[in-house]
Design a protein that fits this description.
Elements: E1 2-5, H1 15-19, E2 27-33, H2 45-54, E3 58-64, H3 68-76, E4 82-86, H4 93-103, E5 106-111, E6 129-133, H5 149-162, E7 167-171, H6 179-185, E8 189-192, H7 194-197, H8 202-218
Parallel strand pairs: 1-8, 2-3, 3-4, 4-5, 5-6, 6-7, 7-8
Helix pairs in contact: 3-4, 5-6, 6-8
The structure holds D-xylitol-5-phosphate and zinc ion (ZN).
């Protein structure tokens, strides 16, 4: 069970010191938004390069950008641990996944709440991780959309049926109230932005979330 805090909820003027407050994380989730695929604008490659230089944890890059086939490989080339593109934004997801892996990053594909998990079926053997969005991408601090939990179970079932070891990440509105349900549904990698950054002791919150997921996953 892996907890990936989203630095979308961090203080952007003090990112290096903010990273130092969440060292119990398994990786840092970086939300790249282009004001086109989603109505918000965040980091670009130069910023990710700087984060990669100072980060003491792996970077998990979540690209919410159009034309992923063109732009995603450049993020992998920065040496980040994983690159997630949206299936809705790629014309050739199989080739893109292979390209990301050939550069040395883990390859992951995401689905928005309205996109069926079946869209990932053919691609799944190429992927290290799939990301089920549990909110509409674009902003932190939203409430998890309950109907997306069934998609997590479907994705886990699909992976099992294909005999694949793919990781399943959930992103959006993850809290200590719902993380056990998500873990039981089959998620093993949890993005948490506002719930971690709002906590007085962020590292304790990360540990609590991981423990809750582990306990639920075992049961
Ligand atoms: C939303 C982003 C998420 C977001 C999660 O588009 O992909 O990573 O930062 O934030 P919370 O945990 O606050 O929903
Ligand atoms: Zn994200």
């Amino acid at each position: 069970m892996h907890i990936h805090p989203s630095i979308l909820s961090a203080d952007f003027a003090n990112l290096e010191s903010e990273l130092g407050t969440i060292l119990n994380a398994d990786a840092y989730h970086v939300d790249v938004m282009d004001n086109h695929f989603v109505p918000n604008l965040t980091f670009g490659p130069q910023m990710v390069e700087s984060l990669q230089r100072v980060s003491k944890r792996d970077l998990d890059i979540h690209l919410m950008i159009t034309d992923a086939d063109i732009h995603a490989p450049g993020y992998a080339e920065l040496g980040v641990a994983s690159v997630t593109f949206h299936i809705e934004a790629s014309k050739d997801p199989i080739q893109l996944s292979r390209k990301l892996k050939s550069i040395g990053a883990k390859a992951a594909a995401a689905v928005k709440p309205a996109t069926s998990v079946n869209e990932l079926a053919e691609l799944m053997p190429e992927l290290d991780m799939i990301l089920i969005m549990t909110v509409e991408p674009g902003f932190g601090g939203q409430k998890l959309i309950e109907s997306t939990i069934a998609k997590v179970s479907q994705a886990r079932e699909l992976a099992r049926a294909k005999g694949l070891e793919v990781a399943i990440q959930v992103d959006g509105g993850v809290t200590e109230e719902n993380i056990a349900t998500l873990a039981r549904a089959g998620a093993d990698t949890f993005v948490a932005g506002s719930s971690v950054f709002r906590a007085v002791d962020r590292n304790r919150k990360i540990d609590l979330l991981r423990t809750l997921a582990q306990e639920a996953g075992r049961g």
